[in-house]
């Protein structure tokens, strides 16, 4: 879990917060002059940045105040927390290599290099040995 530092309440568990989407999205100057396509783009189209991203968050179970956060979408590293209405801080962050973490391998839900072995797996109802098919480091 993330430990988010609320500007009003201090550090709290991420379960106390709600994500509010991309920060610093300006409201259109003349919304009545926009066609349906432009209005839909304003409402629904947002950046999907890999790396540092400015987000809005609400401390829903605490002070109920909105604030902005700069967070790395790859490592979940929180780089800055700042109040609403403040400009985005200039945080110098090293470039993230575009290596990605997604995998199409059979073990794409584990962190190992290969899929867990199933050769010793027994599904019989008479088996009295405890299950040993969990990947190393998994909890039971």
Distance between the termini: 20 Å
Q: What is the number of E strands? A: 6
Give the strand order of the largest sheet, numbering strands 1, 2, ... along the chain.
3-4-5-6
Let me know the average pLDDT: 78
The low-confidence runs, each spanning 5 or more residues with pLDDT under 50, are 95-112, 120-129
Shape type: globular
Order of helices and strands: EEEHEEE
Number of H- or I-type helical stretches: 1
What would you say this structure looks like, in words?
- The chain is mainly beta.
- 6% of the residues lie in helices and 24% in strands.
- The chain contains one helix and six strands.
- The protein has one helix at 36-44, and strands at 3-6, 10-13, 18-22, 52-58, 66-72, 78-83.
- The strands form two sheets. Strands 3-4-5-6 form a four-stranded antiparallel beta sheet, with no helix packed on it. Strands 1-2 form a two-stranded antiparallel ribbon.
- The longest helix has 9 residues, at 36-44.
- The radius of gyration is 22 Å and the shape is globular.
- The two termini are 20 Å apart.
- The relative contact order is 0.15.
Explain the layout of strands and helices.
Layout: E1 3-6, E2 10-13, E3 18-22, H1 36-44, E4 52-58, E5 66-72, E6 78-83
Antiparallel strand pairs: 1-2, 3-4, 4-5, 5-6
Short description:
With 140 residues, this protein is mostly beta strands.
List keywords for this structure.
4-stranded antiparallel sheet, about 140 residues, two-stranded antiparallel ribbon, mainly beta
